[in-house]
Amino acid sequence: MAAFWATAPAGAQEALSQKAQTLSFAAMDAAVREGAFKRVTSILVARRGQLLHERYFDEGGAEARRNTRSVTKTVTAMLVGAAIERGRLKGVDARVMPFFADMAPFAAADPRKAAITIEDFLTMSSLLECDDDNSFSRGNEERMYLVEDWVRFTLDLPIKGFPGWATKPADAPFGRAWSYCTAGVTTLGALLERATGKPLDAFARETLFGPLGVTGERWQHAPTGFLQGGGGLELRSRDLLSLGQLLLDRGRHGHAQLLPQAWVAAMISPHAQVDDQRGNYGYLTWLPTFTIRGQKIDAAAMYGNGGNKVVIAPALDLVVVITTTNYGVPNSHALSERLLTEYILPLALDAK
Prior knowledge:
Elements: H1 10-18, H2 25-33, E1 40-47, E2 50-56, E3 66-67, H3 71-85, H4 111-114, H5 118-122, H6 141-144, H7 150-155, H8 182-196, H9 200-212, E4 234-235, H10 237-248, E5 252-253, E6 256-257, H11 261-267, E7 272-275, E8 279-281, E9 286-287, E10 289-292, E11 295-298, E12 300-304, E13 308-313, E14 318-324, H12 332-350
Antiparallel strand pairs: 1-2, 1-14, 3-4, 5-6, 7-8, 8-9, 10-11, 12-13, 13-14
Helix pairs in contact: 3-8
């Protein structure tokens, strides 16, 4: 399905809405147009590899490249898997610091920093004092954007402390203390460029985007020149759908295995716990569980600021893309989740 998504037959779409009684995609679209979900720009739903629903609510339409912010992070995790498969990285246990030995020394020297691995950045659980959810954190991403060298910003960070009320890694589920850290993923993108010897966009085009038919993508650049793996990648909504389908199909696209099955399985398996409300976290992939009419639906998801989401539900053979410009809107993720829980997932359950 490179660059093309086959639309499901009309009968399949009608069956989906008929079984849902008062629920329908038309009702969802109307609610979006009325502003119930603020500034949603597109909604795409694919089932069993066929496009069931595709709507655009902005002037850009299908060809617009949309900035889905931290959805980029999951793409970076895919590229790590591609680099390991090609022998450019030894594995997730490879240590980060040796890739930047030419930049040493770094501030706040500590032997525990030398032990930080690629997996630590993939799971948002390195011991660096970095927390985007805490405006006081030295590693908060807004502080990173104020300086020129984003890699040095990251690797200069001190080791975080664990006061009595904080859960230490040894006491946390999966042995990892999670905190959301864009700086770590930004550095992971720079590491990929050094490991592969190619700019991130060229490596992505070679391994993922070219085979998937993704064109015209736009990456953000760090002030020192490398491409930002932590956010800001602009893609079409159908491109996002293709990336979600690739995860759902365990790395396979048509007759080609673009990512190893074992790598995709690792991406969507739990490696850290976010918290009791948001559940677990894989390799730069969220692992939410939605409850619909008492039934739990496990999912894997790519999330970005503003409630941007690419969600796969393996049990339903479903991929959903929701794009928005609700940047900075309070509870923007909850707004997008309402689209999932009030409309899309119930419709899919009724048609199961």
